[in-house]
């Protein structure tokens, strides 16, 4: 009888964890409905997705890191189940929305992990709310397209994004999917990201691309004074490894971890290695 009760308790516990990982919460910030997931216990770890994406790209991180952290993955305004922002929305507005989300979730300070566009947002959030940041983790990101690539590349990318935002998903997804991976992703992870990208918001995609194109955070990077970790796939086609070294050199005392065989979405392509790196880094930082 005791064994049966223990087994039943274990099943209930698993069901509760599964429900947490798959339940979206909602809050309203700046008049916008924002969807997010909140799972686990411990210091807060905030996950910021890239453009064309939403919180589902963090599935392996939410599952793998929630034993040690309170993991929060949002759908940024203009993505996933969150509302679309107005046409004049910019990266500072997203940073303010993120602060409002943390207020709603009862989070005063957090580790901020941003992937690609989410990494640009993480930098902006630190600039506006430095006292709320325990650490920064910047994955396969940029100092803006202008800051990390060139003005001409930034404008070429932006022009393509504005055009492509009007495409139906069956035409849109193939244009961007292959660039997110190395040359040898599994079929499963390709299908997973393809399904996520099929739900892209045209206006959110245009606004996020615009934010990336005009941004140049090179002057701000040397002013980052919290523990900072860079995680990069060595096969990143969108933000090549030389960008990682540029940002690493610019941020005082930052660390750089390179994941072999991973592309732009290194968290999806090599999730186990990605999680080990994030966990070790965050646990090494004293909580004030």
- Count, helices: 12
Mean pLDDT value: 93
**Which segments are poorly predicted (pLDDT under 50) over 5 or more consecutive residues?**
5-21
The N- to C-terminal Cα distance equals 46 Å
Sheet bearing the most strands, described?
Answer: 8 strands, mixed
Number of strands: 8
Given this structure, which CATH class is correct?
Alpha Beta
The CATH architecture would be 3-Layer(aba) Sandwich
CATH topology: Rossmann fold
Helical content class:
40-55%
Structural class: alpha/beta
Number of domains: 1
CATH superfamily: Alpha/Beta hydrolase fold, catalytic domain
Spell out the helices and strands N to C: HEEEHEHEHEHHHHHEHEHH
Shape: globular
Cα-based radius of gyration, to the nearest Å: 18 Å
Strand order of the largest sheet: 1-2-4-3-5-6-7-8
Plain-language structure description:
It is a single chain. This protein is an alpha/beta fold and 288 residues long. It has a single domain (2-283), classed as Alpha/Beta hydrolase fold, catalytic domain (Rossmann fold, 3-Layer(aba) Sandwich). The protein has helices at 2-22, 59-65, 91-104, 117-128, 145-148, 151-164, 169-177, 187-197, 202-214, 241-250, 266-269, 271-283, and strands spanning 25-29, 32-39, 44-48, 70-74, 110-115, 133-139, 228-233, 255-259. An 8-stranded mixed beta sheet has the order 1-2-4-3-5-6-7-8, sandwiched between helices. Helix 2 crosses helix 12 (271-283), helix 3 (91-104) packs across helix 4 (117-128) and helix 7 crosses helix 8 (187-197). The radius of gyration is 18 Å and the shape is globular.
